[in-house]
Design brief:
By secondary structure, this protein is α+β, with helices and mostly antiparallel strands. It folds into four domains: 4-56; 69-175, Beta-Lactamase (2-Layer Sandwich), CATH 3.30.450; 183-250, Arc Repressor Mutant, subunit A (Orthogonal Bundle), CATH 1.10.10; 257-307, Homeodomain-like (Arc Repressor Mutant, subunit A). Helix content is 44%, strand content 18%. It has helices at 4-20, 36-56, 88-93, 98-101, 112-125, 203-218, 227-233, 238-249, 253-271, 276-282, 288-299, and strands at residues 69-78, 83-86, 131-140, 146-157, 164-175, 188-190, 199-201. The protein has a five-stranded antiparallel beta sheet with strand order 2-1-5-4-3. A hairpin with a 5-residue loop joins strand 3 (131-140) and strand 4 (146-157). The radius of gyration is 22 Å and the shape is globular. The N and C termini lie far apart (45 Å). The relative contact order is 0.09. Residues 56-69 and 173-197 have low confidence and may be disordered.
């Protein structure tokens, strides 16, 4: 049987492996001891948070103006554990389309160990008409990464009192400074030229555009729909999406997609042993020649040169 120090070393090894795979959402629970291992765990969590924050912000054109925000996972389940609703951040962070989440049993998103925890806790929750608790769970993303967090879980009756529902959510992190006072009274103006402003971006518009940004970052292996269809999906129009995105991030939607695909491809090429074919597929390129041409145009040499 492992002693406490051996157990903590195993946990540290697991965290380092997750970080090596590019998963910076995995963190360690603080140790009850006050020793070198406990100090190491605290430092690792701090380093992990800093790296995570830098990766999240790497695509921002104006990182110094990035507002404070919460990245939150939120699910609404029926009494059987079937997902009836998931917020947009959940879809982005798990790298899964909303249509692939709705109707799925929550256990399909959990690791093997978390499934057992959930099944036991769910039975206890449903015994009461109303209940609140916290449950530590591990979810897997579409890319096989693990997000480990403590969820707030609430069981309640629907409006007519005939069915029980389960709400589960957790905040992953908060970063940067809040917007200055009065920003929304002076909404950003976006226009085709300097003479005639055509669009004013409200707080809701900027949230929507940032949502498109996050969707791109977390679904680089998928092709985007046409801008008109994407705009309708996000509840806006093509003009506002196109020019609003350029105003906030300094480039077009599709140029940003290509830029982030190549950024991720370079990271995977340098720091993993994955084949170039696999990397091309993971970053949304249809073929090796297409991937190599785009990579060379961006970085001056083909991806194969980084493997020599």
């Amino acid at each position: 049987m492992l002693n406490t120090d051996d157990f903590n070393v195993k946990r540290i090894q697991q965290m380092l492996m997750e970080m090596a795979r590019g998963n910076f959402f995995f963190s360690l629970e603080p140790s009850a001891k006050n020793d070198n291992v406990a100090s190491l765990i605290v430092m690792l969590n701090m380093v992990n948070e800093e790296i995570r924050a830098s990766f999240v912000h790497q695509g921002f054109a104006r990182a110094e103006d990035t507002p404070q925000y919460l990245v939150q996972l939120s699910f609404l389940l029926n009494a059987e554990g079937i997902i009836e609703m998931a917020n947009q951040k959940t879809s982005s962070l798990l790298s899964r389309l909303p249509k692939d989440l709705i109707g799925t049993h929550i256990t399909e998103l959990l690791t093997k160990g978390s499934r057992k925890i959930w099944q036991k806790k769910q039975q206890q929750l449903l015994k009461k008409e109303y209940s609140d608790t916290k449950i530590p769970l591990e979810l897997t993303t579409g890319e096989g990464l693990i997000i480990r967090k403590e969820f707030n879980v609430t069981c309640f009756q629907d409006l007519d009192g005939t069915h029980q529902k389960i709400l589960m959510d957790t905040v992953l992190f908060s970063k940067s400074e809040p917007f200055g006072k009065g920003l929304w009274k002076q909404a950003l103006k976006v226009s085709k030229d300097t003479r005639s402003p055509k669009v004013r971006l409200s707080q809701k518009d900027i949230r929507m555009i940032r949502g498109v940004h996050d969707m791109i970052i977390n679904n680089l292996d998928n092709d985007l729909p046409k801008l008109k269809d994407l705009a309708l999906q996000m509840g806006t129009n093509e003009f506002k999406l196109k020019y609003g995105f350029k105003q906030l991030y300094g480039t077009s939607v599709f140029k940003f997609l290509t830029q982030e695909r190549l950024r991720k491809a370079k990271t995977l090429t340098l720091h993993t042993s994955l084949s170039l074919k696999t990397i091309a597929h993971m970053t949304g390129f249809k073929s090796i020649p297409h991937f190599s041409r785009a990579f060379k145009e961006k970085y001056g040499s083909p991806p194969s040169s980084l493997r020599k």
